[in-house]
Amino acid sequence: MDFQVLKDSVYSSPAFVLDEIEVTKALEILAELRTQCGCKILYSIKSLPFSAVMDMAKPFVDGFSVSSLFEARLADEVLAGQSSIHLTTPGIRQDELDELSLLCSHISFNSLTQHQRYSETAGAQSSIGLRVNPKLSFLHDERFDPCRQHSKLGVAIDELSHSICLDQIEGLHVHNVFSATDFTPLIKTIEKLQQHLGAGLAQLEWLNIGGGYLFGQIEDHRPFVELVNKLKHDFGVEVYIEPGKAIVGRAGHLVATVLDRFVSDGETIVILDTSINHNPEVFEYQRQPELHEHDPDGQYAAILAGCTCLAGDVFGQYRFKEPLEVGDKVVFKNVGAYTLIKANRFNGYNLPDIYLSNSLRVKKMKHYDYQDYRRQWLAD
């Protein structure tokens, strides 16, 4: 991404700019993995369910993974029945089950009780699986950890190994990492599955090993290729992966404009025309996003803050070669995943316009206006 072009381009601010080249690059890496080991690729649309991204992904993937009825409907609309849709969620509603079964080729129930209640109905249309909790934690922050104590995500592996459900399902789903940059967790997880389930794995038709691995930031893919080939050879299962952030994480940029600049208790405060409400994980996880203009050796420091009245609407402190002035643009990098999907209009500030960018053009794809805000809050 040419960041100077981003800042010089004439478009509204704030803007969410999606780099088509970066998305395609990530998809090509995954397509090469599929060629090497025969794994099947699902785009996990919860990271960014924008139809333009889903259309870009379609030629490279074997389907989409979803977590709700609305996601399943959108996936079906984009795929038009041409690829598979895999569902796993803790929150299946009985009144949605019939439609989910029609839309989803694969459903992984989150618990033995879900399986007991719903598998007969869903199994008439979908391939039925279970999400398993391997009881292996690789994350220091339990807010991200699916294997945390008292986890709501999946059937504990000890419980599953003693259950008759293994004879009643066609697949397993496992997901226990976030933003992993090596395959050690995956290798250890599969080893534990084999230890506890043994020959039971050979009864399965498919194994979904989830997402959470940043394939584009892992140089050596050989451990993954070898593992998938071994699973297919030893147990005869189809192996699925469902990357989300790995596809769009580095492809999204949030462009903002400086509205004000002043000093508070000796620190320079810069108010932007965006807010953490356009990137809620900044506040949720106290995470400081990367800024293109940040220079660790810069002479000028400033706290970048959003334009809402929330005191904690703050991106963090950055350093600059030159002081920021009203009207200057800044670009937050690598914010493609879990940003727009969580964004909100707190204080009535509008959502960013959405643009697609490549080396030749920047094209506006989506604009929200007052009528969108009005529809959300006016009583029916």
Automatic annotation (TrEMBL):
One of its GO terms (cellular component) is cytoplasm. Transmembrane segments: none annotated. One of its GO terms (biological process) is nor-spermidine biosynthetic process. Homodimer. It comes from Methylobacter tundripaludum (strain ATCC BAA-1195 / DSM 17260 / SV96). This is Carboxynorspermidine/carboxyspermidine decarboxylase. It is found in: Cytoplasm. Belongs to the Orn/Lys/Arg decarboxylase class-II family. NspC subfamily. It is an enzyme of class 4 (lyase). Catalyzes the decarboxylation of carboxynorspermidine and carboxyspermidine. It catalyses: carboxynorspermidine + H(+) = norspermidine + CO2; carboxyspermidine + H(+) = spermidine + CO2. Pfam families: Orn_DAP_Arg_deC. Keywords: Cytoplasm, Decarboxylase, Lyase, Polyamine biosynthesis, Pyridoxal phosphate, Spermidine biosynthesis.
